[in-house]
Amino acid sequence: MSNYPDLKLYIGGAWRKTADELPVLNPADEAVIGAVPVARRADLDAALEAAASGFRIWSQTSPRRRGEVMLAAARLMRERVEEIAQSITLEHGKPLAQARLEVVRGCEFFEWDAAEGQRTYGRVIPSEPGIKYIVLHQPIGMVAAFSPWNFPMSQPSRKIAGALAAGCSIILKAAEETPAGAFHIARALHDAGLPPGVFNLVFGVPSEISDYLIPQDQTRLIAFTGSTAVGKHLTKIAAEHMKPVLMELGGHAPVIVCDDVDPVAAAVTSAIRKARNTGQVCTSPTRFFVQEPVYEVFAKTFAEKARSIVVGNGLDPATQMGPLANHRRIEAMETMVADARAKGARVLAGGERLGNRGYFFPVTVLADVPDDARAMREEPFGPLALISPVSSLDQAIEKANSLPFGLAAYAFTHSASTADRLAETIQAGNVSINTLEASVPETPFGGVRDSGYGREGGAEGLAHYTIIKNVSHRMAI
């Protein structure tokens, strides 16, 4: 069975094949399910030319008309949800139900930004008679965007929707491991009547594409989601050419569990969320700092729930968690578990690869994890839950803020004063209390410190795709 698409580049409103291709694997059985075309210099030059032409058209298109095209594309993607979800599950491995939700989430980014694009208001600043000071928000230009493999649909959608709503054109370099989501977005935009060149999709060797696109005169903004190391590299290239960047980088999310909550309910909620996307989420709850009075109950319940999570092929309706993305992730999980165990951590659930075909690894619960364990210092990006006791809220906050990452953080408490203190003192771009949802389309999302800067989503996110122009107008000389 295969509902996987025949992948192509999308440049200047036309589909392209190339002579060079890379295989796309199904992580559930390691079978080749498709081939992704590799863009070469001529393809990138064509995309740049098309994007420049597309920008001239789209930037002069009314916000209402832009929104109509975006909403039409979102409707098409909703109608095609089963087809798109099947493709995502085949290439990524996540359960089909989660793939469907990801398609819907991608559509929500288009729908929200389509409306918000009509509210990029400027302002008139009060002044003396005879002169006006007017602030305008105008589209920044062509965007070079780079999306990761862990969310094939929603991550590209967030960048594409923001750029289009602001009136920008965009070249997206989507992930070669999971290219179908971006391909289906391109197909929907094409069918919705987006003018040629406004959106362009390429795949290929990541470093070659970024090194070529970023310095080009047509490129006015770089939007990237991925690792901190790569983000810093791209930022350095952009800085050399005075290009602004929007960086959504890695995280290592802490979760503070206070002793005034039900530890059983908090543990069950946490275990379910840890399994989402097989833990391959930059906002995945990972470092659990639990106050001592509820520590043992929380850890025990978490492990029990983790052991009950069904791991398997995402196309099986019984599956609750799919495979990891590739063999490298398996090796990373095994290395981190071994290191933590050698340093005194207890393995309460999981800890070993499941089978020898497909990249399956269970939700793994480690208790009493010391601060010097590798998994406590480096983002696991997998289904590892690291649980440690803390004696006080002060200690929990200190540990939560001890790493250079600051993307998402979570806490469970029923105390209003504690919640207020956590919101004020935790160093993260997104703090969620009594919920493990880090972002929705209408709210700004992004990190601080090594987790990047800039925001995606919300009015703040849309603002990054615009420039602010001040106009001073004296009525007479």
Provide a quick synopsis of the model.
The chain has 477 residues and is of the alpha/beta class. It has 2 domains: 9-249 and 451-471, Aldehyde Dehydrogenase, Chain A, domain 1 (3-Layer(aba) Sandwich), CATH 3.40.605.10; 253-440, Aldehyde Dehydrogenase, Chain A, domain 2 (3-Layer(aba) Sandwich), CATH 3.40.309. It contains 15 helices and 22 strands.
Description:
The chain is of the alpha/beta class. The protein contains 15 helices and 22 strands. Strands 14-15-16-13-12-18-19 form a 7-stranded mixed sheet, sandwiched between helices. Strand 5 and strand 6 (131-139) form a beta hairpin. Helix 2 (63-79) packs antiparallel against helix 4 (96-116). The relative contact order is 0.14.
